[in-house]
Amino acid sequence: LMGAFSIGGALLMGAVSDKIGRRVPLALTFGWRGLGYVLLTALPVLPHPIMLYGAVFVLGISWSSTVALLATTCADRYGRRNMGSVFGFVFGIMSLGHSLGVYFPGVLFNLWGSYLGALLINVVVAWVASGLLWALLDGRRAPGVAAAGAIGRAPRSP
């Protein structure tokens, strides 16, 4: 279910970001991810299938959306010509983070006997990322990079 919601979330947030820009959908995506982790941490207190399915839904719609939104943000900011290099670097850092995200919760589990600390750290990181995105100014582009709507358009004759 989470994988299906992930595909749907990526498609939905991609379409929304084409209409309103990348910053707000990306901020929402990270905010939702934090909410999904909160729902997971609440499962021991409220062990109900609705809590589990709610966490699966919220985490699912936010999971792959970040990849689609970051790829288009790289193209918007640095141009399509540079997108491969820039997004390759960004995705490499993301992969490193994913690797550490598998290792460190195991370390925390060995120390504390629970994954609760790791989930709460994820909540904080997701919500800090969301807050930083809300605070950023939208519309900045690298010098010489055309606006997203102008990419692929033929230049106007004088």
Write up this protein.
This protein has 158 residues and is an all-alpha fold. 77% of the residues lie in helices and 0% in strands. It contains six helices and no strands. The chain has helices at residues 2-20, 23-42, 49-63, 65-78, 80-112, 116-135. α1 (2-20) packs antiparallel against α2, α2 (23-42) runs antiparallel to α3 and α5 (80-112) packs antiparallel against α6. The longest helix is centred in the middle third of the chain and has 33 residues, at 80-112. It is globular. The chain starts with a helix and ends in a 23-residue tail after the last helix.
Order of helices and strands: HHHHHH
Number of helices: 6
Rg computed from alpha carbons, rounded to a whole number of angstroms:
18 Å
Helix proportion: over 70%
The overall pLDDT average reads: 86
Summarize the structure.
By secondary structure, the protein is an all-alpha fold. The protein has helices at about 1-20, 25-40, 50-65, 65-80, 80-110, 115-135.
Features:
158 residues, mainly alpha, 77% helix, disordered C terminus
